[in-house]
Design brief:
Layout lengths: L6 H25 L4 H19 L3 H23 L8 H22 L1 H12 L3 H31 L1
Helix pairs in contact: 1-2, 1-4, 2-3, 3-4
């Protein structure tokens, strides 16, 4: 079913998901500041997945698919908890990102064409992308360590 979708299609789909999530974050920041922290997580995560796919990170392929499924799951859970249906720009953008994520995740995981094109692109990638991938990975590890240390300090002090 997903055989027709390759690396470029998944990259463009990830860019569209990042664009929708970032526009939702902007909307939430301007009109609903109390909800903007959750929107920031989705926007940041989708941008990280996009950059990781552009840099041809193998780990991003699988973590990105899990992230898209997580985003769709939290959207479904959040909509199920609503007492009455609400339709506004924010809900439409969240649902749009979730549906696009449900399309992107199987492509990243199951498409043989994606796997072939991803491997070919990875072998033929320029040297600067290799260095950027190492810097990207180091940046994520440093951010994870900093967040862990911050949590430990907060738990110990409170």
């Amino acid at each position: 079913m997903f055989e027709q979708w390759g690396y470029r299609a998944a990259l463009y789909l990830s860019a569209l998901i990042a664009l929708v999530n970032c526009s939702h974050f902007t909307y939430a920041k301007l009109l609903m500041p109390q909800a903007s922290s959750g929107a920031a997580v989705y926007a940041g995560g989708s941008v990280l997945v996009l950059v990781g796919l552009w840099l041809q990170s193998r780990m991003t392929r699988y973590v990105g698919a899990a992230y898209y499924l997580f985003e769709a799951g939290t959207t479904i859970y959040g909509l199920a908890r609503l007492s009455k249906p609400i339709v506004n720009v924010g809900v439409v953008s969240i649902v749009t990102a979730a549906v696009l994520g449900l399309v992107a995740a199987p492509i990243l995981l199951l498409s043989k064409r994606f796997a072939r094109e991803f491997a070919t692109e990875r072998e033929n990638r320029p040297v600067y992308k290799k260095f950027l991938l190492h810097a990207y990975t180091a940046l994520i590890v440093i951010a994870a360590v900093a967040a862990t240390v911050n949590d430990i300090v907060n738990i110990a002090s409170g």
